[in-house]
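CORE FACILITY INTAKE
Project code: CF-77B
Contact: R.S. (postdoc)
Sample description: multi-component assembly, two entities in total
Requested service: structural model of the whole complex
Turnaround: standard
Below are the sequence entries exactly as provided by the requester. Do not edit them.
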Amino acid sequence: MMTGKTLNIQVNARNRAYTLDGTSDDKILNLGLSNAIDLPYECGSGTCGTCKARLISGEICDRWPEAPGRKFLKPKKGEFLMCQCAAKTDSVIEVESFVHTMEAGACVPGLITGRVNSSKLLTPDVMSLQITMDQTFDFDAGQFMLVQFPEVVGFRGWSMVNYERHAKTLDFVIKKKPDGVLSEWLFGNNCEGVEVELYGPLGNATFYSRLAKNILCIAGGSGIAGIMSILSRAAQDGYFSQYSGDVFFGVRTMKDAFFLDELAAFRAECGEKLNIVIALSDEDVPASAQIDYPQLAFDNGFVHEVAGRHMEDRYQNVRAYLAGPPPLVNGSIGMLLRARVTTDNIRYDKFS
Amino acid sequence: MSWEKICGVSDVPENALEKFEVNGIELVVANYGGGFRAFPPRCPHMEEALCDSAVLFDGMLTCTKHLWQWDMGSGEKTGIAEKELLFYDVKQEGGDLYAQVDEALVYEDDDDEDEDEDDEDFFNAD
């Protein structure tokens, strides 16, 4: 356990200042969020650049000077990523945006420990991973955790698949990335029993039943994880007895598809207001797909284009959730704006 | 200030964004239906390339990185956007579009190249 020296950080946001008491071990983003101060962030893991801030006085330590998100910074201006930097001394920093405290009832993030309970290959390059935590934990459907393995330095953001209050276990989906150090390790080793550190919950693409809107989910590949959590919560609350749900899950071919049994079970449980379409981008829909999964629909094309075709003029009172690679998210945003869905009803967390 | 021809009016269809270079200065032209706007190529928030990833529809420009929006008719930020876009003056003449691009418009926080020199000038002013 690290024990850094105590210090305080003053955060000057556009609307007001906050004072944080922490230590030199605390990443500044985490310190703010753990104090229910909603500092700007998106990926939380050094990639997107959204958490950039400017050092006014004091000294900071950059834990990951090679972070890809640094390309958004102007180091000469003292800019740094709050998700990767800790203060070395009392410091004053400036955040350009408006910063508010979290709403009452929000799940305030914190650092917890856990252990890998099980892992399973879902396709040759996608695995599911279940982590049992040392304490129960609350999160909103659609949120993600930052997870760090002792073997590979650095936190990765993964969305929860499951949803329950006072959760003791969290389920994740991990895609094998070419040259991804952690995914290489996970796919090449038995990681059961390995102790992990987790920070969260994070993310604003959340679903809650008092939303009272029809929901539209567009996901590609492992992006389906957070959508599964949303469907789980909606199913538990009987949400689709009143509101419609349209889920579009894009994969390249049937061999890349997973969670089809689970999606079919959601449809069976929730009824005909929940429509689930599997979009295959790289092959025609095989005849066997519809026979094997009568509860699901299948179509051919990029998932946001398939969604556009199926939704047509059904965008009234819709909240959209997007998850997947940037072309999918950008393509979906364009489609939704042209269908006159307002930006406050478009939710996603960009990881790049 | 002088007017420079950027493109033909028909080079930028309605709801399209096109990038041009005039006097070595890159700018994006938006045809928003009610007219044209010309602005620097990067989002003032996080420098997203607006020509590649912004969406123009219903007179609204939306950057898809964080959904900041600007009303092209009034030229003002709207919704969650926290910074205004800067615009080059444009005019249509005949079938062509002209803009005043004597020097690149730069967002307040983007002028790091000149900053040190400016400071020196400031301190040496007397």
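Facility notes:
- Residues 112-123 of chain B form the longest helix (12 residues).
- Chain B touches chain A through 19 residues (CB under 8 Å).
Invoice: internal transfer
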